[in-house]
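Input record (Table S2, row 366):
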Amino acid sequence: MRMKGLDRPMRPRGGFLRTLLLTRSPFPYETADHEEIPCDLCGSADCRVLSTKDRNYLDVRACICTRCGLIFLNPRMTKEWYGRYYQEEYRAQMARFKGRFDARPEEEDLAGLYRRGTRHGLALAALAQPYLRRGLTIEVGSSAGGVLNGFKQALDVEVRGIEPSGSEAQWANRQGIPTDAALIESTACALPPAANILCVQSLNHLLSPRFFLGWAHGHLDPQGCLLLEVMNFRHVLRRFQCLRRAIQIDHTYMFVPEVLRHFVIAAGFDILWMEQDEDSGPARRSDPQRAGLPGYHIRLVARKSGRAPFAHIPEMEGVYEHTMQSLESIPLSPIGYFFRHEARYLARRIKSRLRRRGSRGEAGRG
Ligand SMILES: [Zn+2]
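Output record (zinc ion complex):
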């Protein structure tokens, strides 16, 4: 595989900032098996490196395909190692990134996930309702079932979830959201053709969005609809002005609206509606109708067409150049980002450590 812009091999590294900003984790990311992959959209092996650090200062190579503009980690951990990562490290790493270092009981986390998911699902269903169909609604990567609960309440439709995390799937089932604890690659569940398939904040995490889109095409009824909500890489970059902030090892693929559109059309869908809040002002984001919807995301609904998935990849002339130009036009200020965001996080971390040390001292005296 040819990779432009490569400045050094991947190797375990320490580093001052990383030591300061990362809570030591037992997960051996640096020694995990990694694999090189071709572009999941166009199959090209040519890519250009955008960043060699992720937002937690982990060594990565975030690349952009120089043919179609798809952004992805390459190399990346193997499927087996991502499996371990999600079981052992993912939730703890997310909590640390948000400056939360006290381990909460899992039940409390799941209840919170479900509650926030329901609010999110209600808002998303209200927004996408004119484009969706009545009938079985499946969500891939359905977490604790909250989003599906919102759809069930708002649209009065039958719902089914597919979620790889056993504890989240179990929680969803207990709340009355039927959920199969599996990956779509291995689900043994016989599913009837669906009216709608949702993938809400999960496409970034998949090891092959192409596989998912083909799977969704095969599992929808002839007029079925696909709803995606995906983080907008360029919007995060614009907001934080720091490349590594837009990159995280659990986001194996990263999207800008124009490339996502091509991907969905290549997979045999026609786009009915698409929105992104990259160009809208704060007024739209503070609209109470949108309460519960995450910022920095692209949302779209597409209808299944008669075209077979990836039988023909639409003309992508100029998409890479346009995407690259738009990314390069964003003024970057990693030092500004450090003082505006990471310094605050560091202060929270030190406070949390002192608090823990204090409470350990009191327990020792008591
Ligand atoms: Zn490509």
